[in-house]
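> forwarded from #structure-qc
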């Protein structure tokens, strides 16, 4: 028999409105950057996606170049969609992006209209869908007028290939300008996707305030700092972990003694709260109502389930918050 989702899946997750839009996203979303490419095991990826949906995760985040090889995460996600989730398309929020290196030559990278719209067509084809819910400009392109990049997002929405426009990795000043351009084009920006975790807090220097003021949501990527905030590297680099794999984006040299000492201290706070370190790292992001969703990655069902446990967390005390400041 084919896949049948858990009936009570929506009772297990909370949903937060993205800025001042009409769209709600799950407090925890699943990203397919790693673990869903052709180098990975398809059946394991499929199980993670379906388990996520069973747990109320409605939002799956992709990009043109997720894999490896580039494009394969979208193709594999499309396969799961066709096999298992076709009947539930209207219960899913699928996002994709263009902005980083994708194909050779001058039209396969950065922020031109030529690249963004061609890439979106390719993404739709790989996933086998007529539209995505969110189409992002993956990064700001200093050499392309912002009007052109935002114009491509707006056109994607106007022609029905995307329902909402988003931006990712944009610095505060460029984000502000992008919001104004998109609003004037009748396609207000739904969401910004920055890197945000206990170890990466630059968004607190004005970006979160801007998002709140502009009514734009925030979805925090790499909330576990690619696994460092799970504590898994405290006693060395485990076999098969992201830092151990040649295709992993986490470099061994980034896991420094100083970082590990800080993470060890934070783990004692998590222990006292009765949470695992990864659960605490996610709860810490979710304490801020400006964070619409926390965008996790997972290589196994166990990791996914552990991380989902973060939504049932006690509030942070002032003392705990202070201990997590350094
Ligand atoms: N917009 C952008 O530029 C951008 C950039 C990066 C990511 N993203 C998005 O954000 C998503 C998440 O990024 P991320 O994968 O870096 O997120 P993350 O949640 O910080 O790291 C996920 C990785 O940590 C490890 N892990 C997770 N839970 C664990 C647990 N409970 N115990 C032990 N290990 C655990 C796993 O790696 P191993 O087990 O393999 O070690 C897992 O693949 C991406 O899929 C993508 O959608 C966007």
């Amino acid at each position: 028999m084919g896949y049948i989702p858990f009936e009570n899946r929506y009772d297990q997750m909370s949903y937060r409105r993205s800025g001042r839009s009409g769209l709600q996203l799950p407090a925890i979303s699943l990203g397919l950057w790693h673990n869903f490419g052709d180098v990975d095991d398809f059946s394991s990826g499929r199980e993670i996606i379906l388990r996520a949906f069973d747990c109320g995760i409605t939002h799956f985040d992709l990009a043109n170049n997720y894999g490896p090889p580039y494009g394969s995460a979208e193709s594999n996600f499309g396969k799961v969609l066709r096999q298992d989730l076709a009947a539930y398309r209207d219960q899913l929020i699928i996002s994709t992006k263009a902005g980083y290196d994708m194909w050779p030559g001058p039209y396969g990278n950065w922020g031109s209209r030529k690249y963004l719209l061609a890439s979106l067509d390719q993404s739709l084809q790989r996933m086998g869908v007529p539209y995505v819910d969110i189409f992002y400009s993956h990064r700001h392109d200093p050499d392309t007028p912002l009007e052109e990049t935002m114009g491509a997002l707006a056109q994607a929405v106007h022609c029905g290939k995307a329902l909402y426009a988003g931006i990712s990795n944009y610095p505060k000043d460029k984000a502000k300008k992008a919001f104004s351009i998109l609003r004037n084009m009748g396609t207000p920006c739904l969401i910004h996707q920055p890197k945000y975790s206990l170890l990466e807090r630059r968004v607190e220097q004005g970006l979160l305030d801007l998002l709140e003021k502009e009514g734009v949501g925030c979805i925090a990527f790499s909330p576990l700092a690619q696994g460092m905030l799970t504590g898994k590297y405290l006693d060395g680099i485990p076999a098969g972990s992201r830092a151990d794999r040649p295709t992993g984006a986490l470099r061994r040299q980034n896991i420094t003694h100083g970082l590990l000492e800080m993470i060890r201290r934070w783990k004692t706070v998590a222990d006292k709260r009765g949470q695992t370190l990864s659960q605490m790292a996610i709860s810490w992001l979710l304490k801020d109502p400006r964070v619409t969703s926390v965008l996790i990655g997972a290589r196994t069902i166990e990791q996914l389930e552990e991380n989902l446990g973060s939504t049932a967390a006690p509030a942070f005390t002032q003392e705990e918050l202070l201990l997590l400041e350094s």
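QC bot note: The beta strands are 15-17, 24-26, 28-31, 59-61, 93-98, 132-137, 162-168, 189-193, 217-221, 293-296. Residues 257-273 form the longest helix (17 residues).
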